[in-house]
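quick one before i forget lol
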Amino acid sequence: MTRGFFITIDGGDGAGKSLQAKRLEASLRADGIPVLLCRDPGSTRLGEAVREILLGREEMEICATSEMLLFMAARAEMVHETILPALEAGNVVIADRFLLSTLVYQGIAGGIPLDEIMRVGQAAVQGRFPDLTVLLDLPAETGMARIDRPLDRIELKGIAFHKKVEAGYRRALDFLAEKSGTDPLKIDAARDPDSIAAQIYTEVTRRLSARPKGGRE
């Protein structure tokens, strides 16, 4: 039995994922709820090393299949080291990105069949899919214009790629929900951050209060 509650916040670059993940963490902690916040890739020694390769090595050519496998390796370690133990301890886990991102970036935008990614993904996440996936939906041009730091290797792929990502999220969200039972929440990320945070918090607390006592079977 996994007793915790697993939330992922996803979306295109510049959509505000990290901000909203941190705000949700703070709100739940203020309510006395134990929370673990992690980022994908990252949150383990292996994950942070893979993150540096995938995002920091601008000069390195990496094909979509290699990207996918690297993301999955980092994700598998994060699930094993951090996510599953935290859920077993009864925590709420918030992940800044997760499997949905790979389905979009390396799948729909990168050209790898979604079923192929899903087969690898099921092994990487050990069958533990999110209880709630939050998609921050934002036009690619708006998201890229919001980024006020040097772009990472994937952000540098250009606006045509990121428009594929924008459209791909809607398709991939439905695919993931059908395959895994992930229950999605799509939010207009063009709104102000306070109203977005309030909507996410309201939905999360509603779902937490609706859980059967004793956890999630």
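fyi Helices lie at 17-30, 45-56, 64-88, 99-108, 114-124, 140-146, 159-180, 193-210.
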